[in-house]
Amino acid sequence: MFEKKFIANAINRSTENQLDRRRFLRAAGIGTLGVGAASVLGAPEAFAQDSQGPSDAAILNFALNLEYLEAEFYARATTGSGLPSNITGGTGTQGGVTGGRQVSFSDPKIKAFATEIAKDELEHVTFLRKALGSAAVARPAIDLDKSFAAAAKAAGLGEGFDPYKDDLSFLLGAFVFEDVGVTAYKGAAPLISNKTYLGAAAGILAVEAYHASLIRTTLYGLGMPAQDGANAISKARGSLDGVGSDDQGISVSGTSNIVPTDENGIAFGRTPGHVLNIVYLTPKVATSGGFFPNGVNGTLNQSGGGSASGGGGTGSSSTPGGGAGTGAGGTSGGRDTELLVGGAIAAAGAVAAAGVYQHGKKTASDGVPADSETTD
User: Fold this and answer.
1) pTM value?
2) Are residues 206 and 342 in the same domain?
3) In this predicted structure, what is the pLDDT of residue 321?
4) What is the DSSP track for 101-124?
């Protein structure tokens, strides 16, 4: 009976709702054991959400929202069209996509790897939807137009930034997402209990890291203007999540910094809440904004708010989203978000005025950008 109880608890952690739990319990041979078994297993324990954090499915659904964003960005850049409608439905509110168009690449090598990345991101969406089954969230509303323009302005890249304008603009737009994707999967890994899910997440993390490295290397090779733009984006990104030590530019004092790591050579991770600070384009607690004007679908939908331990929950007891310092997104005990905003704007102004990014030493912290067009 211990084995059945163990299986029930494992299934509870790896599913998102009671329907999914019942389905998995039946598949494991537990759901047909009757009242006696239920009393031994304990109904509340079998179906209650783990108080230590979100379920594995909730984490994968959070990742799916991010994959929708990346997949739409790359699909539109390489083909001029978005994701097929048969892989955008699901639970929650399905939204359209504003912005995005095909890039007229001048460098065939950049076009080739952009097409490859677009294929990878499409496959990530397909895989996560298949793994989640009926629990998969729908694609939320995505803004690839005003969000890019606002992000670029905050990073000091000027007005009307368009990531679909040319090769360099595309690379800077891609740079916004790729590092965030790596840190998102790295930060989520310790929260996943199911080894199958963890293995899949590790595989996607590796691919996102390959993508990020390719984008960073290409930008570095384009010289100072590209390096300055990427460094400004990194600095703005770091100011949004309020941590200040989980983002690095692509060059430090004129030396390449292709692989952003801590002092132990380990990649940085971000909590779901801090990831949402970046994609919502705000250092404050929020449930929508930026690239997701109506928010993301799923239970992990709230940004952090400047707390170094900020989570991404909705504020309920079942998800990491309470007060600051508790793995949550609250502002109590967090840093002054207005100072963060003011600092980001001041830094952006200095970059714009000088036209040069002042490289610091290899301590994490650096940027965010930009804009586009189209709807589906």
Assistant:
1) 0.73
2) yes
3) 34
4) -----S-HHHHHHHHHHHHHHHHH
